[in-house]
Amino acid sequence: MATTETKTALITGGSKGIGYGIAEVLIKEGIKVAITSRSSVAAELAATKLNEIKPGYALGVGADVRNLESQQKAVENVVKTWGRLDYVVANAGVGHFASIQELTPEQWQETIDINLTGVFYTAKATLDALKKSEGYFITIASLAGTNFFEKGAAYNASKFGLVGFTQAVMLDLRNEGIKVTTIMPGSVATYFNDHQPSEKDAWKIQPEDIGQLVADLIRMPARTLPSKIEVRPTRPGGK
């Protein structure tokens, strides 16, 4: 996928899990990748590890998706470092799962702020750079964006909203030369919601599988746009 002019990507929430898996694949494809995390230390440590794949291809940036100015500074950092921004993956997310009787206002607000408003801020912060490169904006939603479940009021609301947001933005930007896609994974072996991945998660989608999907999207001919993709484990529960 690498060209004579190296492409660049920005992945929010890229220090671990799905974001890190995407970064690994893109770097192997010859794309320079900036990963963000609310923790500058976590972002820089992850970038150091990623640079073992290809030195100088990873950049760790401390940025909070809940703050537009923070997102804008992250974009400025990428453009200043590499001169361009071609691909954006809005991946940062959080999950609070509780009955509406126990769900706190703070948990509700954090879920909406990160999973939905944070993607809006990411889009606003990266739009000008993506117009210049005629780039790609990808959001990581969830099958929870179309399938509601018990104790999912906050998470469902954020992901239903994210799917709708992304599809509307796709219509807004496709005539501007910017592609927009939402990916909706099912069970992924990550650290999400304090889970610790283990061999028992072998049946689940792996983070690098989502990375491969992102790489495949980037390869698609310019005339073709897969705008919404559902992806799930082949054998649920390893059956």
UniProtKB/TrEMBL annotation:
Domain Ketoreductase span(s) in chain numbering: 7-208
Among Gene3D superfamilies, the record links this protein to: NAD(P)-binding Rossmann-like Domain (3.40.50.720)
One GO process term, biological-process aspect? monocarboxylic acid metabolic process
Identify the InterPro entries for this entry: KR_dom (IPR057326), NAD(P)-bd_dom_sf (IPR036291), Sc_DH/Rdtase_CS (IPR020904), SDR (IPR050259), SDR_fam (IPR002347)
**Which SMART domains does this entry report, sorted A to Z?**
PKS_KR
SUPFAM superfamilies assigned: NAD(P)-binding Rossmann-fold domains
Please name the Pfam families in this protein's record: adh_short (PF00106)
- Fetch the PANTHER family from UniProt: 3-OXOACYL-(ACYL-CARRIER-PROTEIN) REDUCTASE, 3-OXOACYL-[ACYL-CARRIER-PROTEIN] REDUCTASE FABG
Q: Could you say which protein family the record assigns here?
A: Belongs to the short-chain dehydrogenases/reductases (SDR) family.
- Protein name (database record): SDR family oxidoreductase
The opening ranks of the lineage are: Bacteria, Pseudomonadati, Bacteroidota, Cytophagia, Cytophagales
